[in-house]
Amino acid sequence: MNQIQHRLVVDEPGEHDPCYVVMPGGSMISLNHHATEGVDIARAKFIIDACNEKLNRLRGYSEEVCAAALRVARIFDQGCDRCDGDDLTLLEKAGLMEVGVCHDTFGQDSLEVGDAMWTFNAEGNALAKALLSAKPL
User: Fold this and answer.
1) Positions of E strands within 14-72
2) For residue 88, what are the contacts with CB-CB under 8 A and spacing of at least 6?
3) Rounded to an integer, what distance in angstroms lies between the CA atom of residue 90 and that of residue 86?
4) CA–CA separation, 6 vs 82, rounded Å?
5) pLDDT tens-digit profile of 83-100?
């Protein structure tokens, strides 16, 4: 399991001294102090906790699986059901999607009754939601 996480570094702790959020890979985001030291460090810890929570949801999945899940989630989110078959198969093998049969074409873009239909399971939905809500820095 991947142990990458964000961490806090406080450079010479004191009022108006910067603290840093250290990203996986070593890049640092400087957070300048605008309030008291305690408030600013609490703000940095809040950001770190939120980032680490997001990473924890993604742990255990390869970059390839996450990329496929994001592509499929974006397509589904747009109301479309036409996805790359390799993405669907990869996500099914990763235990994130289930294949069934389309019983109702209401809300379907191109599926017909009787067609194979892939849907995210609970774990896949959680991963898709985390990926869709992730904001680039």
Assistant:
1) 19-22, 28-31
2) 72, 97, 99, 118
3) 6
4) 36
5) 999 999 999 999 999 999
